[in-house]
Design a protein that fits this description.
With 403 residues, the protein is mainly alpha-helical. The chain has 20 helices and no strands. It has helices at residues 3-26, 28-34, 39-65, 72-92, 97-113, 115-127, 134-159, 163-181, 186-199, 207-213, 215-236, 238-244, 249-261, 263-268, 270-276, 279-299, 303-311, 317-331, 337-365, 368-396. Helix 18 runs antiparallel to helix 19 (337-365).
Length: 403
């Protein structure tokens, strides 16, 4: 497979993944509200899913990093099947709240769990000689999210929220086929098997040892939790934000389209940007943008401000994702690569846990503005921790981001 085909295959995986991420995650509140859940119940469900995912991701990453039968690609295949069958169950199960709670939490958790594995898959294949333009593939994944959101918003408003699960099932079936055929040559696989005892040894050991070995990463992890508290607050309750300003599902679709499509140019150019600017600096920069993004919603009093806020995705999420991926790839040993990606994604999901537990309750009891003010304060604390990470890196001096 030549360079264009490797990038093309990985791009297909990303486009399909983020199309399904849109129907499950971006429209979680829409689907659950249609099945009779309150804001508080939605927050509890998403918190349970995020807690489970945060615990599950490092566990799976540890198994994959050790080598053996469970590879990045095989875990993706298993995840596709779980989400496929879960989506079918949700489509046909009606308003059985217990069943909806259990199955939706499962597919939400699994979809988050295989996101860092997707990133690790790219760097694994690159080390086997498979050229993949990560920034372009990841950026087009965001474009897949954007197009799906633009199309699905109006369709859901017209045909109902059950449509989300049927679309998810179709996407996951296509994802399974794409992942099944996306694999390196037998020669590369055998070479990986011969060398895995050398390349997959982790110098950091377990959880505590990992953060002792990478102290700056520990500060970035806390910062990530706080950034994504606010980010998840906006994403999970965007339909309520839009409705409070007079919009509906169609406006939600366009707002999500805007933020996702803006990710494409930044992620596509991330490889060039990261040759000039360190991943650490970009992580701090993105944190400031997350803060500005939610602060705009605190003071915005009409629908246009929603679109202004979403446009800051260009500097927030679009910068954070490639910067975090390259931070891990450039600073951690081979045996810590999947684990490092998983810890970043776990931090994202932990941020979602606290957001889900707090946001729904504040929204039900105090209203929209207090919820957004809380998110702004938490995100500002994240910016402080990100600056502390830069300080810890400079003091320790163990990180070489240009190796």
């Amino acid at each position: 497979m030549n360079r264009k085909l490797w990038t093309g295959g990985y791009t297909v995986l990303n486009v399909l993944y983020f199309a399904a991420f849109c129907t499950v995650h971006a429209y979680a509140a829409v689907f659950l509200l249609s099945r009779g859940f309150t804001n508080t119940q939605i927050g509890i469900l998403l918190a349970v899913a995020n807690i489970t995912s945060a615990l599950f991701q490092p566990f799976i990453a540890g198994i994959i990093d050790k080598g053996g039968w469970l590879s990045n690609r095989r875990f993706i295949l298993i995840s596709c099947l779980i989400i496929f069958f879960g989506s079918l169950i949700l489509y046909f199960c009606g308003n059985n709240k217990s069943l909806v709670f259990t199955v939706f939490a499962l597919i939400y958790m699994i979809q988050f769990a295989y996101q860092p594995v997707m990133t690790a898959l790219c760097f694994e294949y690159q080390k086997k000689g498979c050229y993949i333009y990560y920034g372009l593939a990841r950026g087009l994944g965001s474009a897949g999210f954007a197009v799906t959101s633009a199309l699905i918003g109006g369709a859901v408003e017209k045909d109902g929220a059950s449509l989300l699960m049927s679309v998810t099932a179709v996407i996951m079936a296509a994802s399974y086929v794409a992942a099944f055929f996306f694999r390196p040559s037998d020669t590369a696989e055998k070479a990986e098997t011969r060398d895995e005892t050398l390349t997959r040894q982790s110098p950091s050991g377990g959880f505590a040892g990992f953060f002792r070995h990478y102290p700056a990463f520990g500060f970035f992890t806390v910062a990530t939790i706080l950034f994504f508290f606010s980010h998840n607050m906006i994403n999970d309750f965007m339909i309520q934000i839009v409705r409070s300003l007079g919009g509906g599902e169609t406006v939600l679709g366009y707002a999500n389209f805007l933020q996702a499509i803006l990710e494409l140019p930044v992620m596509t150019l991330s490889g060039l940007i990261l040759k000039k600017v360190s991943p650490s600096f970009l992580l701090v920069f993105s944190g400031v943008a997350f803060f500005v993004k939610i602060l705009i919603l605190v003071f915005g009093n009409s629908l246009p401000w929603v679109f202004v806020s979403q446009s800051f995705q260009l500097f927030a999420y679009a910068v954070f994702i490639p910067a975090s991926a390259f931070y891990v790839s450039s600073t951690m040993a081979d045996g810590d690569q999947v684990k490092g990606q998983a810890y970043f994604t776990s931090a994202i999901t932990v941020g979602g846990v606290f957001s889900n537990l707090v946001s729904g309750v504040i929204l039900d009891r105090l209203g929209m503005k207090p919820m957004l003010i809380t998110g702004s304060a938490v995100c500002f604390a994240g910016v402080i921790f990100a600056f502390a990470a830069i300080r810890a890196r400079d003091i320790k001096g163990e990180i070489n981001e240009n190796r």
